[in-house]
Amino acid sequence: MTKLIKRSWAEPFKIKMVEPLKMTSKVDREKALKEAGFNTFLLRSEYVYIDLLTDSGTNAMSDYQWAGLMLGDEAYAGSKNFYYLWDNVKKYYGMPYLVPTHQGRAAEHMISKILIKAGDYVAGNMYFTTTRVHQELAGATFIDVIIDEAHDPQNLHPFKGNIDPQKLTDLIKKVTPKKMAYVYMAGPVNMAGGQPFSMKNLKEIGGICKKHNIQLWFDATRATENAYFIKMREKGYEKKTVSQILKEMCSHFDGIWVSAKKDLMVNIGGILATKNKHVYEEARNMVVIYEGLHTYGGLAGRDMEAMARGMEEMVSFDNIKARIGQVEYCGKQLEKYDIPMVKPFGGHAIFLDAKQFLPHLKQDVFPAQTLAAEIYADSGVRAMERGVVSAGRNQKTGEHNYPKLELVRLTFPRRVYTQAHIDVTVESIAEVYNHRKKIKGLAMIYEPKYLRFFQARFKRL
Ligand SMILES: *Cc1c(COP(=O)(O)O)cnc(C)c1O
Fold first, then answer.
1. What are the residues whose beta carbons fall under 8 Å from the beta carbon of 172, sequence distance 6 or more?
2. Model confidence over 366-405: pLDDT tens digits?
3. CATH numbers and ranges of domains, the chain
């Protein structure tokens, strides 16, 4: 009798160079945690064993990208790496105009300054930390118009990154189209748990914006993952390539900003690209003040070369499948221990539901911040808070913003960790879950004015 043989899949690459990790004891980690004010952003990475803080700039470049570094044309103006990058921006995103920046938030800064007048509104599919700060600093009020399902961690809607057309229409009517600086979509939506939007929704939102003559912009930082989800989940896209879907997505937007530290698998870099000649002229002028000449935007020639090459690799179906497959593997293992998580599993990360993990803690004592600290103490795995600390304070009342989602994010750098690292992570979280009832919350003892989650300090209650 022939037995049914399970067929596994594995990554489409192998390891060529290794970076040794320091092994720490529980005593070492308790000391490090105290020094870091129980904020995983303030830990020295040397004391981190498995670093799931972020997938931003932490990816492993390919040999092809590393080889590109040697071809850096470090001319002050007109570097050939810039022109190669520009060609690839046209080829993969379909945007004719490019302004490079040193990272994503620099592009957000410029686009906010260009499109926003004081008193304007910006609508989007949930907020992102740096994006919203730049919108607010430019004088806008940000309004979240994502579908309600996105705020429910257990809702299995396949496109929880969608914008609610009714919410958007109502908002435009209320504030008038003139006061809408722009609408933006991110995909997948980080703060919702890495949830994608559908092409159908994008077309509908694009239609609404066109009708009212409002610009629609795309935070395309993880756009290839959104394209992958469309391919896997949306009817009519099964046979299209990631590259074709990405280009179709971009065709509905006036412009994009990108943190190249994610999809493009480099350590630094950003992009502002658009079809809008006026915005381009403004950005090209502005970049000289804040970043550098428009042909390098705060980057070295070699960085632009690595970005251009990363763009060619980012649309590989097998690469994205291995990446999202690793996230899914982690989620499925955690499920075996009944760990509460956001579902469906996201593209770049697993989000633990800290409200359910630590139901005895009120949001005032920062359950997600607490959980991230406890996981580090247990095993040296570093995660990040995405809850009340990240949500900051209400600009008018000064109160904490209390988001519905109180999450701990385990973010997977691309092409960096093995399945065994994932197993170690899962077992550590299961261990913390076992003794969760003994965990008390934290008190904030230092709070910076902007993006407080990066530098706030806490102590155990
Ligand atoms: C990382 C990120 C940004 C900001 O980019 P940086 O390169 O970190 O400045 C903006 N939007 C999204 C969705 C991101 O993930």
1. 180, 208, 212, 214
2. 999 999 999 999 999 999 999 999 999 988 899 999 999 9
3. 26-48+317-460 (3.90.1150.10), 63-314 (3.40.640.10)
